[in-house]
Amino acid sequence: MGEGMTADRVLAIDGGNSKTDVLLINAEGRVLSQVRGPGASAQNVGLPRSMEVFGGLVRQAAELAGLPAGARIATHTAAYLAGADLPKEEDELRQAIDSLGWSTTTVVANDTFALLRAGTPDGVGVAVVCGAGINCVGVAKDGRVHRFPALGRISGDWGGGGHLGSEALWLAVRAEDGRGPWTALLPAVLRHFGVDSTAEVVERLHFGELPMECLHELSPVLFEVAATGDALAGQVVERLVEEVTVLATVSLRRLDLLAEPVDVVLGGGVLTSTGETVVAQVASRCREVAPLARIRVVDLPPVVGAALLGLDSVGAGPAAELRLRSAYDARQPPADSIGLAAGG
C-alpha cells in the first residue's frame, strides 16, 4: 500500500437521501477503499446526525485503506450532497466538514453536479436526476451555472419517487371510494401492501405505523401499471416525461446551449429503472428544442462523479480519470463495506 499512502488522496462523498457512498482514491485515480451507509441528508436528519453518519463512514474508509489513526485522510474532500440546495446550506455543510479535519481543502455542492461529472468528460452540460426527489443543474463551458432550488413543491418541483408514489396512492384511494375513475393502480397498490383496502394504508400512514418514505416503493408499481396501458397511470408517467424535458430545456435555454453540441445526462433510481419508457421520450422532446443535444443515461454512480470532480480540483490528468472509470464497475454497486488494495 505504499504508493497509496504517499500520494495525494481525494475523499469523495455522495450523500443521497437513501444512501451515502464514500470513495477514497489517490491522485492517480486508484481506488483505496469504498464504503456505503445510510442516507443522511442534513435536510432530513439534521446537520449533527448527518456529520455523525459521514464521519463514521469516512473513518471506516480510512481504516480499510490502511491509513494510521489520526492521519490526515486526504488532500481534498469532494462532498456532493442531497440537501445542499442553497448557498447557505452549502456553506454550513462545508464548515461542518472542514471542522472535522479530513483534508486540506473541501468543496461541498449539490449531488446533481456529481451526476453531471459522472456522465460527461468535463462536467459541462445539463444533468437531471430523478430519485427520491428531482433536480437539475447546468454548467456551460465558460463556467456559468444554472440550477433550481429543488426544495419540493414550494419551489415549483414536480416529480421524484416519493411524489410519484403518492400520486399512485392518491389515484388508488379515489378509485376505491368513488371520487375518481377506476384504475389498475388500485389492485396493484393493495397487492403491494398486502391489504384489502386503501383505507388501511392511509390509516397506517396517518398514525406513523408506516413511514411516509414507503410511498417511494409505489413508484415502480406506477410504471408497471402504466406499461399495461392504464390511462391514469400513463398520465402520471407522461407528466414526468414533460417535467424532465422542461427541466433540461430550461437549463439549456438559460445557458444559451440550445444550438450547441451538449450532453444532457439523466440519472437517479427512478429514471434509470424505467428503461426506454421515459428516457426515449425525453430524448426525442429535448432534441426538438436542442437538435444537437446528446442524451445520456449515466452509467456510473454519482460518487464516481464526486471523485472525478475531486481529481479535477487537485489537478489530476486524463490518465487518472480513465483509471478510475475503468476500475469502477457500475453494474456491481459496493456492498456496505468494501476494501480495495491501493494500486488495484
UniProtKB/TrEMBL annotation:
It holds the Pfam family BcrAD_BadFG. InterPro entries: ATPase_BadF, ATPase_NBD, Euk-type_GlcNAc_Kinase. Residues 13-310 form the ATPase BadF/BadG/BcrA/BcrD type domain. It comes from the Bacteria. This is ATPase. It comes from Solihabitans fulvus.
